[in-house]
Amino acid sequence: GFSKVEVISSGINAEYGGYKVLLFMLLGMNAGAAYEYYLDIQTAGSKWAATRGPVYIELDGTKDRTLNFGAVNGLAKNSLKHFSKHSDENIGSIKCISFGMGSSDAWTPEYLSAWSSYDHEKVYVYSRKKYY
Q: What count of other Cβ atoms lies within 10 Å of the Cβ of residue 57?
């Protein structure tokens, strides 16, 4: 933040002027780059919609990069779950949400949606079939 720059600048020798502060600021802008990715999962309300097994999620971005969201658990019938993942990599705008089962236990999603800290436009995957 700005207060850190002020503290550092007060300790710089006068012969260097503001150059060290400027160098610190330029290096600091990329050194702390971090991105958050968000995922909402709505499980359907049908009788056998829940799963006891893990569901593995990947997000594909427009920069030909993939973020492995890992395993999500606790997908109960009619539940809405929120997940987030921190990454140092910008995958670009999310263009695809891929998921796969980690067990033989079935699961029926109502929808999945994903977005990032730098692109708030949500991408959705909807279940096309209704199960009763």
A: 22
Residue 71 burial (CB count, 10 A): 11
* pLDDT, tens digit, 9 for 90 and up, residues 25-80: 444 444 457 999 999 999 999 988 999 999 999 999 999 999 999 999 989 999 99
Q: Are 104 and 55 in contact (CB under 8 A)?
A: no
Cα angle value 100/101/106 (rounded, 5°): 125
Where do the DSSP E strands lie in the chain? Answer: 35-43, 55-61, 66-72, 80-87, 94-101, 109-116, 123-126
Give SS3 for 48: coil
Dist CA 57 CA 114 (whole Å)? 10
d(CA 75, CA 49): 9
Nearest of 54, 65, 43 to residue 101 by alpha carbon: 54
- Say what angle helices 2-10 and 19-31 make with each other, to 10 degrees: 150
Q: CA-to-CA distance for 103 and 42, rounded, in angstroms?
A: 19
